[in-house]
């Protein structure tokens, strides 16, 4: 168990089903070992995936979840573990594929892990049979697909042929794999060769396939007997009966359990007798039928098959279909009398409805009923006997339907059968017994004490117990009678007759097939489990002795020393159970004989007897309170519940009242009397045998039979509990190997020399430990005992530092050896290695040291080979990649150059195509635009010409008359409004003057108040004189702004003059166009001097109108542009004026809001209308330019065009006069303020100076307020006239 070696480690996870994990040794010390989980490539079920492709990457996982650390068990001074494996739960793994090994005893390392691994691998390859020394391990495949492959006629013939050749001394080149046929054949050949009886012991837990294996063995033995060309008819008549007995015993002795749907609930020993190699007779012995199952079973289970079969047969099968002469005495055995019919009839009866499983998937009750009837007919039973058997079974089934009720008799509560119940009557009719005696048996109990007979009435609970006890006894006696009847049918000539024959060849020899229950350990274990485990302990003792005997024979054959070897023994467990007078069963018999014996008293005696001194018997304080005791069997510790009816089950006696029922003199039927004859005779004896004593006696007889025969062993194993094909649960399998005694047998076989190798294998395996010069001098072949002795002497003669001298000197080997952990010294006693005639036997310590040095040498060579191989592989890969890279580069360069040229050609072609496409698209758009413009111009010109010619003439006349009416009406209104406005203004001013004169005193007070406020303001401003001087620099900024304002004003005036000029040109152009377009009337075409018609103008009217229209549009556009320029210039000028006012106020320490500044600015001129002929110059107009408002002259009135022009001019002059009056007043006031402020440094002084010039007149409001009032008044008047004229 060295570094890098493969081992098995027990799985620590309680939920895992692996049992053992395949690992690699990472590190090792005397105290612990570190393992890393590894994938086992030999096991197809190992789904573990680890990435160890790099060789050493598995070492990176040593700190992950797959690392297992185990401590050493017990170590010696030299550091080698004394126990197997050396570490807790760690076992060495075998090399190679175990599926090719048919006998696991030949494995180098044989332990539970290697055994389990080999069985798992072979099972998944459909090899269900495996030998382990003398034991055949058979795994149940749970499928019928392999039946023909494994048990066909051709397979049976092959094994017969191979057995015949072996018995004749002919060696075959190839041997057949392990099989149940092989065991049966070896058993038969050994009987014939050794002239000694043989036995086949088949064991296993429920569902492992014991019954099927028993059938296979018996079929093979009967086939061998038939193949011997027997001239007598004895063998041919016995064989069908033997084979027919199996379905009958299965119907009455098998039941459905949680683990198996056809589980045998009894043990049987089938003894086949042969004379002159021919089968002459047979006998069947049964052991410990589970009678409790008749009346009670768990959920999901069933009672015995016969109860369900008779129900289905009574319902679905007419008696004539079984046999035309079969006529039951009771139709349907009275089963359908109480519940009608139907497939669910089994759920009606109490004894068949407890488990809730009336039907099975893989077992048909109707077919079983027919096979049971056919089996009884093949055994030679009469139809009346068969009818009596079925009637007895139906009576047991109806007995469970008997109900009791309470009645008071003499003040005591007693049980009696329910009135109007005919169940007891039907039972008596089926069984043929007396009704009164059966009723008495169910409700009363008879006791005989000191010669006196006492009758005790039972209560309901006791009556139910008596009823169930009677049902169990009846069924148990019926089963024993059936076994006896089967033996009577299959037994030929008496064996005693042939024992007296003088011929040796005429002796009768037996082959016994034992189908026994396996070791059982449940959550609740009772008397049955104790007897079953006691049987397995006794068989295991016999098995150990047999294995020990084989080991002795092997050691003698190999001529090695073996006297010092000790083998395990379980005789102490047998003594604990069966010993007298203090054995468990003996003390139980004593307790049953006492009048008031009980389970609690019995277990108390056990606690007192054994206490804590026994190694096999134990119980804790809690277990003592619960009446539980533990027994340590060979397969493990089992807890037994004492208060589960040990005493009652051990007694199993028939009550006196029941004995009277089944006697002939009391009117009982002969069949029922024959059934109970053995039971009644035993009950009459003074010394009554208990079940335990009977079982012990039968077991001793069985052991004596087995010891007198040559045993052959078959251990049946169950891969899983769900009966699934191709599914193996490792933990369940290892438990069965443990309970079946296989691991115990392996431990016995390997307790001496566990490691065994052939001479050639030993020589080839360990000669590599020697240095090359020593190994070369050793012989190569042939290899025998002498060569192995020479090799062992050379190994022990080497120095202690052998590991440092292995291989060559220096180089990579030395570096590799220095990096590997050094093995222990190769020093051990020579007795630990025994050289036999054909094999080498080694103790574990010697084997471990040899393996350590071999692993060291192999590791050194492996690393050296790996380094060389990796170097060659890497160089080869490098050269390949280099050559491939050069080719790829060359290909890529050519491809890339071609792609570049292709892209350049494509780009040039794309550019050419793009230019041409763009040219064509542009040309198409241009031509379309030219055609559209030409067509549009044509149509537009024609439309405009027609429209102008017709519209102008209409407009001319209409405007002429409409304007004349407006003019005269407006003239009258203006004159009235002027007079009214002047009158209103004069009156208002007159009222103001009068109110001012009246309030002179009030005005003086207001003036004084204002002067005081101005004085305070002046004082404040003087205090800020120093700070104002510092801001004197701001005056330069003010002057600059004033200069810029003047410049903008000049520009604005020039633009307004230009605007007036353009408007004038526009007006004259309009007048000319109107004059040209007006039709020529006779009065207008004549001259004032001559009165003759004036000559026609050289231009046509249409052409002149078109040219005039174009000129008007051009002038209007220029006029609009000038208006926009004027508006922008005015806006800039107002912004400049606002900035100047704000800076001046800030220099004087006065903060003005934006609204105040807008109030101080002059109002913007009104927007000009397109119909006005002239614009008003608000600032540049003088008083002499206001125009005359006089009426037009008579000459002008006679001309409509001149009248329209005169009225328009008069309206505009009137508007200009009113607006200019208001603007002049505001301009004067603003000019006066600017002149005074520009010459003074103080705003307040300029304001006062202005007030002093008021000629002593006290005004109500200040000049600024008055200015604002005038501006507001001017705005009102302007708005009024604007609305009026527009």
Automatic annotation (TrEMBL):
<dbReference type="GO" id="GO:0051015">
    <property type="term" value="F:actin filament binding"/>
</dbReference>
<keyword id="KW-0009">Actin-binding</keyword>
<protein>
    <recommendedName>
        <fullName>Myosin motor domain-containing protein</fullName>
    </recommendedName>
</protein>
<dbReference type="GO" id="GO:0005524">
    <property type="term" value="F:ATP binding"/>
</dbReference>
<dbReference type="Pfam" id="PF00063">
    <property type="entry name" value="Myosin_head"/>
</dbReference>
<dbReference type="InterPro" id="IPR036961">
    <property type="entry name" value="Kinesin_motor_dom_sf"/>
</dbReference>
<keyword id="KW-0067">ATP-binding</keyword>
<dbReference type="InterPro" id="IPR001609">
    <property type="entry name" value="Myosin_head_motor_dom-like"/>
</dbReference>
<feature type="region of interest" description="Disordered">
    <location>
        <begin position="1152"/>
        <end position="1212"/>
    </location>
</feature>
<dbReference type="GO" id="GO:0016020">
    <property type="term" value="C:membrane"/>
</dbReference>
<feature type="coiled-coil region">
    <location>
        <begin position="1105"/>
        <end position="1132"/>
    </location>
</feature>
<dbReference type="GO" id="GO:0007015">
    <property type="term" value="P:actin filament organization"/>
</dbReference>
<keyword id="KW-0518">Myosin</keyword>
<feature type="compositionally biased region" description="Basic residues">
    <location>
        <begin position="1196"/>
        <end position="1205"/>
    </location>
</feature>
<feature type="binding site">
    <location>
        <begin position="204"/>
        <end position="211"/>
    </location>
    <ligand>
        <name>ATP</name>
    </ligand>
</feature>
<keyword id="KW-0547">Nucleotide-binding</keyword>
<keyword id="KW-0175">Coiled coil</keyword>
<feature type="domain" description="Myosin motor">
    <location>
        <begin position="99"/>
        <end position="855"/>
    </location>
</feature>
<comment type="similarity">
    <text>Belongs to the TRAFAC class myosin-kinesin ATPase superfamily. Myosin family.</text>
</comment>
<dbReference type="InterPro" id="IPR027417">
    <property type="entry name" value="P-loop_NTPase"/>
</dbReference>
<feature type="coiled-coil region">
    <location>
        <begin position="993"/>
        <end position="1020"/>
    </location>
</feature>
<dbReference type="GO" id="GO:0000146">
    <property type="term" value="F:microfilament motor activity"/>
</dbReference>
<dbReference type="GO" id="GO:0016459">
    <property type="term" value="C:myosin complex"/>
</dbReference>
<keyword id="KW-0505">Motor protein</keyword>
<feature type="region of interest" description="Disordered">
    <location>
        <begin position="1078"/>
        <end position="1105"/>
    </location>
</feature>
<feature type="compositionally biased region" description="Acidic residues">
    <location>
        <begin position="1166"/>
        <end position="1182"/>
    </location>
</feature>
<feature type="compositionally biased region" description="Polar residues">
    <location>
        <begin position="1080"/>
        <end position="1099"/>
    </location>
</feature>
<dbReference type="GO" id="GO:0005737">
    <property type="term" value="C:cytoplasm"/>
</dbReference>
<feature type="region of interest" description="Actin-binding">
    <location>
        <begin position="699"/>
        <end position="721"/>
    </location>
</feature>
């Amino acid at each position: 168990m060295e570094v890098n070696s493969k081992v098995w480690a027990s799985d620590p996870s309680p939920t895992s089903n692996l049992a053992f994990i395949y690992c690699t040794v990472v590190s090792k010390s005397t105290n612990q070992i570190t393992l890393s989980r590894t994938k086992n490539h030999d096991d197809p079920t190992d789904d573990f995936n680890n990435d160890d492709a790099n060789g050493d990457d598995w070492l990176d996982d040593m700190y992950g979840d797959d690392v297992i650390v185990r401590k050493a068990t017990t170590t010696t001074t030299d550091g080698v573990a004394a126990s197997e494996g050396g570490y807790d739960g760690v076992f060495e793994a075998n090399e190679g594929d175990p599926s090719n090994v048919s006998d696991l005893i030949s494995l180098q390392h044989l332990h539970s892990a290697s055994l389990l691994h080999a069985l798992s691998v072979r099972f998944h390859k459909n090899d269900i049979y495996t030998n382990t020394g003398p034991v055949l391990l058979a795994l149940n495949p749970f499928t019928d697909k392999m039946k023909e492959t494994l048990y066909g006629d051709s397979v049976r013939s092959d094994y017969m042929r191979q057995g015949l050749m072996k018995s004749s001394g002919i060696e075959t080149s190839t041997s057949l794999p392990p099989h149940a046929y092989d065991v049966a054949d070896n058993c038969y050949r050994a009987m014939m060769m050794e002239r000694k009886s043989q036995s086949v012991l088949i064991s296993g837990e429920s569902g492992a396939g014991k019954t099927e294996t028993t059938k296979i063995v018996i079929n093979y033995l009967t086939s061998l007997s038939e193949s011997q060309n027997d001239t007598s008819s004895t063998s041919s008549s016995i064989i069908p009966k033997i084979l027919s007995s199996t379905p009958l015993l299965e119907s009455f002795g098998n039941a459905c359990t949680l683990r198996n749907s056809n589980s045998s609930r009894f043990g049987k020993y089938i003894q086949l007798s042969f004379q002159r190699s021919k089968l002459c007779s047979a006998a069947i012995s049964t052991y410990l039928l589970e009678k409790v199952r008749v009346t009670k079973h768990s959920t999901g289970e069933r009672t015995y098959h016969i109860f369900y079969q008779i129900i289905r047969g009574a319902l679905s099968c007419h008696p004539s279909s079984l046999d035309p002469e079969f006529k039951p005495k009771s139709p349907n055995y009275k089963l359908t009398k109480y519940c009608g019919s139907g497939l669910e009839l089994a759920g009606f009866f109490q004894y068949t409805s407890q488990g809730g499983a009336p039907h099975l998937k893989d077992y048909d009750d109707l077919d079983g009923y027919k096979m049971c009837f056919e089996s009884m007919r093949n055994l030679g039973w009469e139809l009346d006997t068969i009818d009596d058997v079925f009637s007895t079974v139906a009576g047991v089934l109806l007995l469970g339907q008997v109900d009791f009720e309470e009645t008071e008799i003499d003040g005591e509560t007693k049980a009696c059968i329910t009135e109007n119940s005919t169940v007891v009557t039907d039972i008596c009719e089926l069984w043929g017994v007396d009704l009164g005696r059966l009723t008495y048996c169910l409700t009363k109990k008879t006791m005989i004490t000191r010669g006196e007979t006492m009758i005790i009435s039972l209560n309901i609970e006791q009556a139910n117990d008596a009823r169930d006890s009677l049902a169990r006894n009846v069924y148990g006696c019926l089963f024993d009678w059936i076994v006896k009847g089967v033996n009577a049918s299959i037994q030929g000539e008496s064996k005693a007759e042939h024992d007296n024959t003088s011929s040796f060849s005429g002796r009768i020899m037996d082959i016994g097939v034992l189908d026994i229950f396996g070791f059982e350990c449940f959550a609740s274990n009772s008397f049955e489990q104790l007897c079953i485990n006691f049987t397995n302990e006794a068989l295991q003792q016999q098995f150990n002795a047999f294995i020990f005997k084989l080991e002795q024979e092997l050691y003698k054959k190999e001529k090695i020393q073996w006297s010092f070897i000790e083998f395990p023994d379980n005789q102490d467990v047998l003594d604990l159970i069966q010993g007298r007078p203090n054995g468990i069963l003996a003390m139980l018999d004593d307790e049953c004989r006492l009048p008031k014996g009980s389970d609690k008293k019995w277990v108390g005696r056990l606690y007192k007897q054994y206490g804590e001194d026994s190694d096999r018997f134990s119980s804790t304080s809690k277990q003592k309170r619960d009446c539980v005791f533990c027994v340590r069997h060979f397969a493990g510790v089992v807890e037994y519940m004492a208060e589960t009816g040990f005493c009652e089950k051990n007694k199993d006696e028939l009550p006196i009242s029941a004995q009277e029922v089944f006697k002939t003199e009391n009117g009982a039927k002969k069949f029922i009397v024959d059934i109970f004859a053995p039971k009644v005779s035993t009950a009459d004896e003074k010394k009554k045998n208990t079940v335990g004593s009977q079982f012990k006696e039968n077991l001793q007889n069985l052991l004596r039979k087995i010891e007198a025969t040559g045993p052959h062993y078959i251990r049946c194993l169950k891969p899983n509990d769900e009966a699934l094909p191709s599914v193996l649960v490792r933990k369940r399998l290892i438990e069965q190997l443990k309970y079946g005694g296989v691991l115990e047998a392996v431990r016995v076989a390997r307790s001496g020399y566990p490691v065994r190798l052939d001479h050639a294998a030993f020589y080839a395996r360990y000669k590599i430990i020697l240095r090359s010069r020593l190994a070369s001098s050793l012989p190569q072949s042939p290899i025998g005992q002498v060569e192995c002795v020479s090799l062992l002497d050379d190994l022990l003669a080497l120095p202690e530092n052998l590991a440092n001298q292995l291989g060559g000197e220096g180089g990579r080997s030395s570096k590799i050896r220095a990096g590997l952990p050094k093995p222990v010294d190769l020093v051990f006693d020579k007795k630990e290695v025994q050289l036999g005639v054909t094999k080498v036997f080694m103790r574990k310590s010697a084997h471990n040291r040899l393996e350590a040095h071999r692993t060291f040498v192999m590791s050194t060579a492996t690393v050296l080979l790996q380094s060389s191989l990796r170097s060659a592989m890497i160089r080869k890969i490098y050269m390949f990649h280099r050559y491939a890279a050069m080719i790829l580069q060359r290909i890529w360069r050519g491809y890339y150059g071609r792609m570049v040229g292709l892209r350049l050609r494509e780009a040039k072609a794309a550019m050419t195509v793009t230019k041409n496409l763009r040219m064509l698209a542009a040309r198409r758009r241009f031509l379309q635009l030219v055609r559209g413009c030409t067509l549009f111009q044509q149509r537009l010109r024609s439309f405009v010409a027609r429209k102008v010619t017709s519209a102008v003439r209409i407009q001319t006349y209409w405007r002429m008359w409409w304007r004349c009416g407006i003019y005269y009406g407006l003239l009258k209104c203006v004159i009235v409004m002027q007079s009214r406005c002047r009158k209103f203004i004069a009156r208002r001013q007159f009222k103001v003057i009068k109110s001012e004169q009246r309030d002179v005193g009030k005005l003086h007070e207001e003036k004084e108040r204002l002067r005081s406020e101005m004085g305070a303001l002046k004082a404040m401003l003087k205090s800020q004189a120093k700070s104002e001087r510092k801001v004197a620099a701001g005056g330069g900024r003010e002057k600059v702004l004033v200069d810029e304002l003047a410049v903008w004003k000049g520009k604005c005036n020039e633009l307004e003059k230009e605007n007036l000029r353009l408007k004038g040109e526009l007006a004259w152009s309009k007048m000319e166009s109107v004059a040209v377009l007006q039709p020529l009337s006779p009065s207008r075409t004549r001259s004032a001097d001559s009165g003759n018609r004036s000559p026609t103008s050289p231009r046509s009217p249409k052409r002149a109108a078109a040219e005039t229209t174009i000129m008007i549009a051009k002038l209007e556009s220029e006029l609009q542009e000038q208006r926009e320029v004027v508006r922008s210039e005015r806006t800039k000028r107002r912004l400049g004026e606002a900035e100047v006012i704000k800076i001046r106020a800030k220099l004087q320490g006065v903060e003005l809001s934006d609204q105040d500044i807008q109030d101080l600015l002059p109002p913007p001129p009104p927007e000009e209308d397109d119909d006005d002929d002239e614009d008003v110059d608000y600032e540049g107009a003088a008083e002499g330019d206001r125009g005359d408002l006089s009426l037009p002259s008579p000459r002008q009135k006679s001309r409509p065009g001149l009248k329209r022009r005169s009225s328009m001019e008069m309206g505009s002059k009137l508007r200009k006069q009113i607006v200019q009056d208001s603007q002049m007043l505001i301009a004067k006031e603003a000019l006066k303020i600017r002149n005074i402020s520009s010459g003074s440094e103080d705003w307040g002084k300029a304001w006062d100076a202005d007030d002093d010039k008021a000629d002593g007149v006290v005004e109500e409001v200040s000049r600024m307020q008055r200015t604002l009032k005038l501006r507001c008044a001017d705005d009102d008047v302007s708005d009024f006239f604007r609305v009026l004229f527009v």
